[in-house]
């Protein structure tokens, strides 16, 4: 950051009573807060809860799949388990996770604002989210849904026995929360940037959240309407997609995927932002090709709206549309590749520090590359016809959404944990968990590529014995993966009490969020910041990073 | 202007006004996509079942539809005047026009209610016993009920917002310079625009 | 945002004057579209109806919602979503208009009556 900022005296910890965590006490001060940092923590609590619930569905499935026969779950229960897993993980964990936890907390800090543009709307959006989540839990308790998270007609409207209406209503309501948050973020980025914070001085995380918000605003209402159509058809029998009365179930798929493909970018774009921050900090390098990273983000957000038909290659969609969507899907791979190359180039001649967030980030790049490249397989019509609705597809999207987005979430949480709580997490445990997540994930999902290619269809609870070795591998990997998810929750909680106090900027990172105390005071900055330089000022522009004369990296476990 | 109108993250009232308008425009972009989804469905089915759709559209009541269009356009006029009056600080004009807007909005819903009653009596609700033989006619009426219903829901929300503003302006608990009047106006005009497109699609099709 | 640079009209009469003209134009267009709906124009009937609707919407957007004022951000926001509507329509129709006959809706008609009960339970 600028000289002026460096010279400004930043206290490491806020004065007693000034920290946002202690600015008010009591339950009401949390449940009625309009402070974006506290709302981020409210989201963290809610989203963690839904993560456990959705994870329970995954655990049930992986246990069932240990053996070729049905042991634990009946066919119907299995259908309900994977539907519940999908609905919760997509709409109540992945979509809101990074934007609503890290985005809510960091966006105003990163652009030097006091709060989001509409603080009360921000709180309202949390309550809408909770309402939707309550409805989702009602769906589970009432008996669940067996349509799959995609609610395809005419299964969902005419034939399914589960509580489709409640599930659709839950997702519908969650959409309002998404839109409210997105409007808030967009207005904040446009109108609340600190003096000097020009568009091309924004950290890439802010760009990513901004682009995500635009996608949310434009895509989510389409989902809302299409769920309303499903709801009306099922509840009141008005024919919209009913083939017996001239309706077109494929039209439902068009409208559904017009939302749900961009939704993939809603899940992964914020991760791009997080990873850019992590890699720049732990390689001590300016992000290579900053402006191209920005254009790539915007390009993905735009073209992501044009590729939805690649989910429908075997649905009866016309061959012309298949070809168009296939071509456009290849086009959207270009900016993703630009990002991967730029991250790699950022590492070049960097002074890489293998702290936990960096391990998560490097794991992300690897897993995202595999997930992205297999996406090209699926964008190619002949290959897709072969592997449609097999575990190949399951593996592909888990590589993007779990390997990618969840790695970024955990990496980001570790990176900003000192800022959020004022405490340092234990570095040794964190590195262990990060490595374990990478291997656990790979053991779980790489076998799925193999068995998918061999023909194992998704959404079946029994299978032919030939696949058992792959399923056992995947289920064992899932145990490791589960441990890697639980361990950070343990040491994060531990650090709240016993963790070392963090300084204002423990990683010597750039970015306005580090130019205030840890944890930040309620009004974010003691004096409103002024920005005079581009982001990622880790070394002088137009020259490489400084020679390696930096003191050896101190793992926090041994910090003085 | 009372200093309390300035809320937390903002350093100036001008910026805060700007944000309210901008935020609502972003939300309207979202609303456009919401209706676009259903209208895409309408467009697809109208292309596939053109004759059935036109025949079905002739069954709607064009008198009620036209009357409601005129009512809504007039309510937009009074809403625009109310927002302008609030900015100019003309209290009586603002209150009168807000009240007129509410009256027109309620009139719209009442006419709509009569229309719905007539439609139900004529068995135009899709399902068993539907009045028209062509199966796709039911799809037309599915969209008719859905689109007008969702529009009426938007009208109801707009009426609630306008009534709240009228009450607050009446009690002087909200200053006339508050951006809320303009923002409510934007929303109201948007709902009007939705109807401007629904009118030819649902009422005028197949009349020639 | 709208109207910041503008000198606010001070009197009620001045406010009414400009807006009544817009309202009159809107009602005239309403009359026109109603009359034209009964003229047999073939497939151009839809074009005319939607064209008039677009004209009315444009009047409302520009004059009631103040987009006439040169605020690039608001204009961009207001019209950006139309681009995405175009995406939705174009690519959906790219499929619907070119689909092979067996997958067109309606080709299974009328296998059974519309009153066939669906089997799913309708619990919320």
From TrEMBL, chain A:
Localization: Membrane
Superkingdom of this protein's organism: Bacteria
Disordered, as annotated region: 518-560
Primary location class: membrane
Membrane-topology annotation of the record: Multi-pass membrane protein
InterPro entries the UniProt entry points to: Cyt_c_oxase-like_su1_dom (IPR023616), Cyt_c_oxase-like_su1_sf (IPR036927), Cyt_C_Oxase_1 (IPR000883), Cyt_c_Oxase_su1_BS (IPR023615)
Biological process per Gene Ontology, one example term: respiratory electron transport chain
Residues passing through the membrane, by range: 40-61, 81-102, 123-145, 165-192, 204-231, 251-275, 287-308, 320-338, 359-381, 393-417, 429-450, 470-494
Gene Ontology CC terms: membrane
Keywords, sorted A to Z: Electron transport, Heme, Iron, Membrane, Metal-binding, Respiratory chain, Transmembrane, Transmembrane helix, Transport
One annotated GO molecular function: cytochrome-c oxidase activity
SUPFAM superfamilies: Cytochrome c oxidase subunit I-like
A matching Pfam family: COX1
All residue ranges annotated as the Cytochrome oxidase subunit I profile domain in the record: 30-532
Family: Belongs to the heme-copper respiratory oxidase family.
PANTHER family noted in UniProt: CYTOCHROME C OXIDASE SUBUNIT 1
Name of the protein in its database record: Cytochrome c oxidase subunit I
Species annotation: Roseicella frigidaeris
TrEMBL record, chain B:
GO molecular function, one term: cytochrome-c oxidase activity
Keyword Iron (UniProt): no
Gene Ontology biological process: aerobic electron transport chain
Origin superkingdom: Bacteria
A GO term from the CC aspect: plasma membrane
Membrane-related topology note: Multi-pass membrane protein
Subcellular location: Cell membrane; Membrane
Similarity-based family: Belongs to the cytochrome c oxidase subunit 3 family.
Protein name as annotated: Cytochrome c oxidase subunit 3 family protein
Phylogenetic lineage: Bacteria, Pseudomonadati, Pseudomonadota, Alphaproteobacteria, Acetobacterales
Automatic annotation (TrEMBL), chain C:
InterPro entries registered for this protein in UniProt: Caa3_sub_IV, Cyt_c_oxidase_su4_prok
Membrane topology type: Multi-pass membrane protein
Main localization of the protein described in the UniProt heading: membrane
A Pfam family matched in the record: COX4_pro
UniProt keyword annotation of Cell membrane present: yes
Entry's Gene Ontology cellular component terms: plasma membrane
Membrane-spanning segments: 20-39, 46-67, 73-94
UniProt keyword Cell membrane, yes or no: yes
Location of the protein in the cell: Cell membrane
Keywords: Cell membrane, Membrane, Transmembrane, Transmembrane helix
Protein name as it appears in the record: Oxidase
Origin species: Roseicella frigidaeris
């Amino acid at each position: 950051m600028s000289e002026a900022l460096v010279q400004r005296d930043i206290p490491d910890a806020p004065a007693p009573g000034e920290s946002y965590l202690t600015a008010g006490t009591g339950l009401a001060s949390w449940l009625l807060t309009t402070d974006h940092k506290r709302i981020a923590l409210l989201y963290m609590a809610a989203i963690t809860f839904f993560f456990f619930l959705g994870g329970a569905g995954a655990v049930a499935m992986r246990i069932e799949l240990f053996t070729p026969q049905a042991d634990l779950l009946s066919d119907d229960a299995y259908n309900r388990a994977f539907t519940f897993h999908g609905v919760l993980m997509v709409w109540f964990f992945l979509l809101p996770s990074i934007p609503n936890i890290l985005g809510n907390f960091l966006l105003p800090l990163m652009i030097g604002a006091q709060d989001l543009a509409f603080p009360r709307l921000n709180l309202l959006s949390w309550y809408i989210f909770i309402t939707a989540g309550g409805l989702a839990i009602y769906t589970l308790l009432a008996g669940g849904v067996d349509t799959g998270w995609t609610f395809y007609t005419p299964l969902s409207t005419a034939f399914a026995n589960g509580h489709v209406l409640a599930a659709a209503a839950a997702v519908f309501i969650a959409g309002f929360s998404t839109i409210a948050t997105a409007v808030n973020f967009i207005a904040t980025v446009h109108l609340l940037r600190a003096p000097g914070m020009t568009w091309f001085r924004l950290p890439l995380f802010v760009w990513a959240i901004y682009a995500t918000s635009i996608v949310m605003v434009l895509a989510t209402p389409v989902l809302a309407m299409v769920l309303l159509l499903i709801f009306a058809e099922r509840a009141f029998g008005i024919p919209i997609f009913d083939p017996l009365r001239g309706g077109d179930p494929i039209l439902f798929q068009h409208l559904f995927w017009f939302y749900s493909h961009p939704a993939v970018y809603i899940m992964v774009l914020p991760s791009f932002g997080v990873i850019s921050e992590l890699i720049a900090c732990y390689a001590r390098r300016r992000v290579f090709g900053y402006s191209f990273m920005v254009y790539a983000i915007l390009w993905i957000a735009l073209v992501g709206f044009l590729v939805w038909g690649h989910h429908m290659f075997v649905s009866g969609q016309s061959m012309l549309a298949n070809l168009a969507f296939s071509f456009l899907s290849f086009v959207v791979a270009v900016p993703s590749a630009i990002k991967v190359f730029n991250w790699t180039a950022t590492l070049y001649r960097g002074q890489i520090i293998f702290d936990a967030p960096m391990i998560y980030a490097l794991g992300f790049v690897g897993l995202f590359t595999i997930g992205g490249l297999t996406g090209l397989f699926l964008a190619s019509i002949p290959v897709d016809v072969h592997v449609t609705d097999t575990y190949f597809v399951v593996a592909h999207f888990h590589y993007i959404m779990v390997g990618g987005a969840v790695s970024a979430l955990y990496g980001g949480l570790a990176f900003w944990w000192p800022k959020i709580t004022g405490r340092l997490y234990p570095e040794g445990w964190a590195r262990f968990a990060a490595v374990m997540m990478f291997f656990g994930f790979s053991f779980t999902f790489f076998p799925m590529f193999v068995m998918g290619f061999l023909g194992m269809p998704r959404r079946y609870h029994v299978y032919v014995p030939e696949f058992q070795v792959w399923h056992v591998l995947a289920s064992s990997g899932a145990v490791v993966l589960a441990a890697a998810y639980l361990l950070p929750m343990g040491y994060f909680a531990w650090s709240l009490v016993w963790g070392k106090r963090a300084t204002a900027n423990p990683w010597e990172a750039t970015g306005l969020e580090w130019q205030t105390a840890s944890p930040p005071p309620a009004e974010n900055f003691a004096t409103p910041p002024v920005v005079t330089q581009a982001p990622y000022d880790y070394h002088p522009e137009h020259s490489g990073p400084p020679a390696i004369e930096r003191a050896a990296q101190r793992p926090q476990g041994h910090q003085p | 202007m009372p200093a309390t109108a300035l809320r937390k993250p903002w350093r100036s009232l001008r910026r805060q006004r700007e944000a309210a308008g901008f935020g609502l425009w972003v939300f309207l972009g979202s609303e456009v996509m919401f209706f676009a989804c259903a209208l895409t469905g309408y467009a697809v089915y109208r292309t596939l079942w053109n004759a059935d759709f036109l025949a079905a559209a002739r069954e709607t009541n064009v008198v009620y539809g036209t009357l409601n269009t005129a009512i809504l356009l007039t309510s937009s006029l009074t809403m625009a005047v109310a927002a302008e009056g609030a900015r100019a600080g003309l209290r009586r004009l603002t209150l009168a026009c807000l009240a007129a807007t509410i009256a027109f909005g309620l009139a719209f819903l009442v006419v709509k209610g009569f229309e719905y009653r007539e439609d139900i009596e004529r068995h135009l609700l899709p399902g068993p016993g539907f009045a028209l033989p062509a199966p796709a006619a039911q799809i037309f009426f599915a969209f008719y009920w859905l689109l007008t219903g969702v529009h009426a829901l938007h009208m109801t929300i707009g009426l609630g917002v306008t009534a709240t503003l009228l009450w607050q302006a009446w009690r002087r608990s909200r200053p006339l310079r508050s951006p809320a009047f303009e923002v409510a106006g934007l929303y109201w005009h948007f709902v009007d625009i939705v109807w401007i497109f629904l009118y030819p699609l649902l009422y005028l099709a197949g009349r020639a | 945002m709208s109207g910041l640079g503008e000198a606010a009209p001070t009197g009620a009469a001045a406010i009414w004057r400009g807006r009544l003209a817009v309202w009159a134009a809107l009602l005239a267009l309403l009359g026109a579209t109603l009359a034209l709906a009964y003229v047999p124009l073939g497939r151009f009937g839809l074009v005319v109806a939607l064209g008039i609707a677009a004209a009315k919407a444009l009047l409302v957007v520009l004059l009631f919602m103040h987009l006439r004022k040169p605020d690039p951000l608001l204009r961009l926001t207001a019209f950006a979503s139309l681009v995405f509507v175009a995406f939705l329509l174009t690519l959906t129709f790219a499929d619907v208009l070119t689909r092979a006959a067996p997958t067109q809706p309606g080709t299974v008609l009328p296998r059974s009556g519309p009153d066939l009960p669906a089997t799913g339970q309708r619990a919320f």
